[in-house]
Amino acid sequence: MSVSKKNSDDKKNKQTIIVRVICIVLALLMLGGVIAATVLSTQAVGEDVTETDVTETDVTETTEPEQTVPEETENNSVFSASDYLIRVGISFRDGTLDSHRVRTHKGAPGFRLYKTTKSNGLEYIWTLYNNDVSVSETGNLRRSSGDEWYYYASASNTAAGGYHLQLLNEYTSRKEAEQAISDLKDAAEALEVPVFPAYLNGKYYIRVGAFGSADQAESEKEVIENALASECSVTSPTITSITVLDHNTAEVLFDFDMEDFEYGLGLYCLDNNGEKDYIKTYKGYYYDGVFEFRRYKNSSVDGVTMILISELETYVTCVVPWEIYNTWPVETMKAFSICARTFAIANSHENAKHKDYDCDVCDSSDCQVCKGFDRVNQNVINGVKATEGQILLCDGETITTYYTDLGGGSMAAAHEVWNMDKRKYLVGQMTPWEDLSVSRFGDWQFTATPTELLQKVRNAGYTNLKGAVDDIKINRLCENSTYVYSITITDTYGTSVTINRCRNVRNALSGLMYAANFVIEHNGRIEDGINHELQEVISGVYVMTSDGIKMIDGEQRINVVTDNGLKQEYLPERLTVKTSSSLVSQTVLIKTGEIIGSGTGSPSSDFKFIGHGNGHGVGASQWGCKDLGNLGYTYDQILYTYYPNTAVADYWEYLSSKE
Fold first, then answer.
1. If I label 362, which of 147, 157, 447, 599 is the partner at 20 to 30 A Cα–Cα?
2. 229 — phi, psi (to 5°)?
């Protein structure tokens, strides 16, 4: 070995030793820092920080960081496990549409997307940062002339094509798909084609482009594959697929297809800078909850349904101000909160009213009007909150809390209105506390000629009548009510038809009454269903009493309840009814009956229907509940008045008893 080589080796060994020493020293210094930090942090736990703990030198001026969207996690739950959820049909059955425009109400940046099930299962799958979208059936789409929705279009006249190129790679997680889209974004933008996620049968895929046909997609395939350095296949629309578009540009943002009608796509509004925001529908109503979109197809409709999944108390809040005025007495608000809540419980889940269409109830008066938060005020919130969880039971079971706009002085038993079993909480009763003067339905009159009447009755299905109507007889009224249960209509040939139950009577005479609470004036006589010896109409004031129609003169005194004397004890007991021009005719409520009008003394062959009220007349009168609230009745007294034999109970206790 040469000297120079030996000296070189010694030098290298010394350098190695020095490096090792330095590394050991650095390691010891780092270990000491960790130990010191641990000790300090341990001492800080539980200590109170006072103003003197922070000096001016501790506070430095910083720049506000740029606002970012909070990191989404895989557990983006909307509801708690204890929430009772209601599925509200907004657009379904024959009301199914090709697409639905939805926006954020206050400008939130977008929506969380969920895979939903008919049992309200929610699985978070994506976050969409676009706050004005259309959810549509997948296909070639173009925008309507009013710019509110998209509908099917031909390949040559489309704003958004339904055919795409799909990368062959599949991704099991949202984050993997997000990264893949990010990696492809620049190349896709260079080609001026959209790149977007598709959630298919539980997995994520990347799709590119929106073409009007499979041939168009195929013609662009090679160019796009080369640009993206990825193999692709051509996709076509299916009968279960749903597309989310940017409503204003028609750019495809997301595709969803589980190849099964059991699943839907859910949208939930993101917060707006920490503030709660809501989803606004194409009709302008805004709601809190998850909107579920699901493909639906029958012999006449092929489109997308829209169902709101809402927590029960939120649903009740959105029903009350659409069924009654939000300025009404708070006790009335409370009473109707319980009515709405009870109806929802009784007609949901296994007892869903619209079970065949994947929802519990609808948003119309067929169930309960539910149009969102637009009319919600503090009065409504107070009424709902004060009765949270309360429902009405009869013999330990939920009741169906039917209610109507205005009874008109009485209510009818449910089994006499519809073909249903007798229910002891839906009974006929007189309601003299109703102030008929405040509603346009308090007193009404409709007139029809014999020929017009024939046409109406025939249109209702009673085609055995051939000639003009000659006579209508009221056979009987409902029990303890002035609602008409049965009529017989006879034409000029002597052919007759008898119609039973209030609903059928009202349908047969559609357009001639607001409720089946009426009498008939014809040929100078009044038919009332009580006194079948028809009375000739002469000048005067007529009153319906328990003994039939009676005329009274200016000196006669009768028992009444007046506008300014609505009391529980029905004071004053007697009042003189005047026949002068200042007569308070069809607005005075009479304890033994009701004023039905002044006779003209001029007989007519036309049929005049004179009546009170609006609606089916079963359960509670909405305006009557308001009157009782004004009289000082508490919410439970209001409910027990209209729904006898019931009791207010907690719905969670009720549900627990059924488990």
1. 147
2. 55, 40
Helix axes 622-630, 635-642, angle to 10 degrees: 140
Whether residue 432 is preceded by a cis peptide bond, meaning omega within 30 degrees of 0, is: no
Q: How far apart are CA 487 and CA 464, in angstroms?
A: 16
What b/e string do you get for 398-422 counting C-beta neighbours within 10 Å, with b at 16 or more? bbbbbbbbbbbbbbbbbbbbbeeee
CA gap 565, 495 in Å, rounded: 48
Portion of the chain with pLDDT greater than 70, in percent: 77
Separation CA 501–CA 387 (nearest Å): 35
The amino acid that residue 606 corresponds to is D
As a residue count, the chain comes to 659
Contacts of residue 147, defined as CB under 8 A and 6 or more positions apart, other chains included, come to none
What is the distance between the alpha carbons of residues 600 and 542, in angstroms, rounded to a whole number? 11
Q: Is 473 helix (H, G, I), strand (E, B) or coil?
A: strand
With bands split at pLDDT 50, 70 and 90, how would you rate the model's confidence at 531? low
The pLDDT-based confidence of 550 (bands split at 50, 70, 90) is low
Secondary structure of the chain: what % helix, strand, coil (to 5)? Answer: 25, 30, 40
In this structure, are strands 620-621 and 403-404 parallel, antiparallel, or unpaired? parallel
Residue-wise pLDDT tens digits, 232-289: 999 999 999 999 999 999 999 999 999 988 999 999 999 999 999 999 999 999 999 9
Laid out side by side, the sheet with 263-269 consists of: 122-128, 111-117, 263-269, 290-297, 302-311, 85-91, 361-362
Lowest average pLDDT, out of 39-53, 196-210, 240-254, goes to 39-53
> For 401-420, what is each residue's pLDDT tens digit?
999 999 999 999 999 999 99
Please list the residues that pair with 257 across neighbouring strands.
200
Q: Residue type at 36?
A: A
Rounded to 5 degrees, φ, ψ at 631 are: -80, -5
**Cα–Cα distance between 542 and 583 in angstroms, integer?**
12
The residue ranges of every structural domain in the chain are 96-310, 314-401+619-657, 436-611
What DSSP line would sit under 101-161, residue for residue?
EEEESS--S-EEEEEEETT--EEEEEEE--SEEEEEESS-EEE-TTSS-EEE--TTS-SB-
Q: Give the pair of three-digit tokens for residue 68.
A: 């970012």
- Which two structure tokens, joined as six digits, stand for 84? 């009772």
d(CA 446, CA 521): 10
Please report how many Cα atoms fall inside a 13 Å half-sphere around the Cα of residue 572, on the Cβ side.
8
pLDDT given for residue 298 in this prediction: 87
Buried b or exposed e, range 220-254, using 16+ CB within 10 angstroms: bbeebeeebebebebbebeebbbbbbbbeebbbbb
User: Which residue is associated with the tokens 């357009």?
Assistant: 511
Alpha-carbon Rg for the chain in angstroms: 36
Alpha carbon distances (Å) from 8 to 3, 259, 469: 8, 75, 129
C-beta neighbour count of 583 within 10 angstroms: 15
How far is Cα 136 from Cα 147, in angstroms, rounded to an integer? 14
**Which pair of structure tokens corresponds to residue 270?**
């993101």
